[in-house]
Amino acid sequence: MISVNDFRTGLTIIVDGQLYRVLDFQHVKPGKGAAFVRSKLRNLRNGSVNEKTFRAGEKVEKAQIDNRKMQYLYAQGDEHVFMDLESYEQTELASAAIEYELKFLKENMEVHIQSYQGEMLGVELPNTVELEVVETEPGIKGDTASGGTKPATLQTGLIVQVPFFVNQGDVLIINTSEGSYVSRA
């Protein structure tokens, strides 16, 4: 058990039999009444984000999540196949479980698969990934980096806003938490 006073971003807890990851939290000490902790939690089984308030000092169960380094191999229908880099064992995850992460996954990419008591929960992406631009309007001479943005379709199907100087075939660094352009690779 862990006190809600010890919350930190990324902590995985069990509340009412559901697995949650703490996305954000705030300790509140009102002038009148008892202190409490306001938190934003992501359900690891269905991906929904909930806001929950706990009394200060309340105890919740801490969940032990296992992270295994795996390589994304390929998509097979509605399933996506990953291979454990140590045992070469292959695991399948449904598209629904990793819907957001699919925008950044490319074949042979190394990721961490999260599991809880043998149940596969999802994919933990790196902070940034390198993806190639497959379609965008050509840059025009005179366009500047601060002059605005245009849409670009990347190799995974993700559409991001990029500066005018980015062209088809360029490899970009993309922030996976926001799905946004960082720089050219």
TrEMBL record:
Source species of the chain: Lysinibacillus piscis
Primary residence: cytoplasm
Domain Elongation factor P C-terminal: 129-184
Occurrences of domain Translation elongation factor P/YeiP central (ranges): 67-121
Protein function: Involved in peptide bond synthesis. Stimulates efficient translation and peptide-bond synthesis on native or reconstituted 70S ribosomes in vitro. Probably functions indirectly by altering the affinity of the ribosome for aminoacyl-tRNA, thus increasing their reactivity as acceptors for peptidyl transferase.
Subcellular location: Cytoplasm
Protein name per its UniProtKB record: Elongation factor P
Keywords: Cytoplasm, Elongation factor, Protein biosynthesis
